[in-house]
Amino acid sequence: MKYYLLSFLVFLLMGCQLIDGKSENAVDKSLENWADAYFNFHYQDAMEYITPESGKWIHFAASNITEQDVDFIKKQDKDTHVEIIDRHIMAGDSMCTARIRVSNYIQLGNMGQESKQINNAEFQVLLVNRNGKWLVRMEGLPRNEMQSLD
């Protein structure tokens, strides 16, 4: 009896630790595609990689871009680059938290401030698996979590 109980516990613990490579690849692909579209202001393309309830945040971001922001974006000669720093898929779950670094990030101005380009910014991103597809769930606009030295 002890053998069966021990075997069951080992099986259960191993099952909780295993995440298949396909899940990680699917998360990475969705996350990179969303981030590349979002941080390069291709909001329509970013919509493909978010949950339906997150659409309001994309619309909000798009509606707050001013003519000065558009001019600033057009003047930039460096492409935005996205790198996944880490991610954690909760075993047996359909959620993933990820941290990404965005190089040459354009921080749009708000409340009368001017837009500026930031060398590196980091963001926390939440993804959920819906019907076998990993989607970004936005609960607000992404916030740079790196401390500014300005």
Describe the overall structure:
The chain has a 4-stranded antiparallel beta sheet with strand order 1-2-3-4. The radius of gyration is 19 Å and the shape is globular. With 150 residues, the protein is α+β, with helices and mostly antiparallel strands. A hairpin with a 2-residue loop joins strand 3 and strand 4. The protein contains 5 helices and 4 strands, in the order H-H-H-H-H-E-E-E-E. The protein has helices at residues 2-17, 21-39, 43-46, 55-63, 67-75; strands at 81-89, 95-107, 116-130, 133-136.
Total number of beta strands: 4
Mean pLDDT: 84
What form results from the Cα inertia axes?
globular
- How many strands, which pairing sense, and closed or not: the largest β-sheet? 4 strands, antiparallel
Structure, briefly:
With 150 residues, the chain is an alpha+beta fold.
List keywords for this structure.
150 residues; alpha+beta; four-stranded antiparallel sheet; 5 helices; 38% helix
List strands and helices in order, with pairings.
Blueprint: H1 2-17, H2 21-39, H3 43-46, H4 55-63, H5 67-75, E1 81-89, E2 95-107, E3 116-130, E4 133-136
Antiparallel strand pairs: 1-2, 2-3, 3-4
